[in-house]
Amino acid sequence: SNSRRQLVAGNWKMNGDKALVDKVQKQFAAATLNNMDVVICPPFPYLGLFDGKVKLGSQNISQFESGAHTGEVSVAMLKEFNCQYVIVGHSERRADNNESSSLVALKVEQVLNAYLTPILCVGEPEDVRDDGTLFDYIAAQLDTVLLKVGISQFADIVLAYEPIWAIGTGKTASPAQAQEVHAFIRGHLAKQDNNIAANIVILYGGSVKGNNAQELFSQADVDGGLIGGASLNPEDFLSICQAAN
Ligand code: PEP
């Protein structure tokens, strides 16, 4: 919370159906959420069903532009469906699909080249937090992308801090824990560019619900959230958005 424009993104993961698309659209048709961005990231087949009341993001992207890459989806295709954001480097993709930070960096580059906005996810597993190497771990995840695209491109990136131990577990990071890492991330970028660090939007993700969103979003360096489970309930998701508004 601060002068930065707040953003709340819902990541449906491999959940939802056409009926949920309708419910979300009805829920948000009447809502007035000014001065903030609401983004829904449904599975690919549903992107074309949305009518423009919320912004759209995808959950993944190919690092290639087009061609012989069976099963992949390109940035150009997303643009045809008015998709403006792309989640890159979600921990589930890093785990399920062995996405390395260098592959994540290629995907970020691909998204930036298409003038879409990457939502770049970083975050530590529980053992890393326990052994005290949290900041080194997050810095390394950021540095791989920084080396590839350069600090100036971070003007067009949204970051999401998602501690893996808090994703889908109901174990939310405390507001102080989130703030500590968000401030670290901003400070890390500030070593290269103060202005970009001050303006970049950093979302928190990990078991954000209607009843804890307000306190998390009120932290100085938390600029909204990336919401998994609670984004599948349109009422809960709307109340989370209102907490950022
Ligand atoms: C996520 O998958 O990005 C996420 C934050 O999930 P959840 O809100 O369910 O913890």
Automatic annotation (TrEMBL):
The keyword Translocase does not apply. Belongs to the triosephosphate isomerase family. It comes from Paraglaciecola psychrophila 170. Homodimer. This is Triosephosphate isomerase. One of its GO terms (biological process) is glycerol catabolic process. The active site is at H90, E162. It comes from the Bacteria. Signal peptide: none annotated.
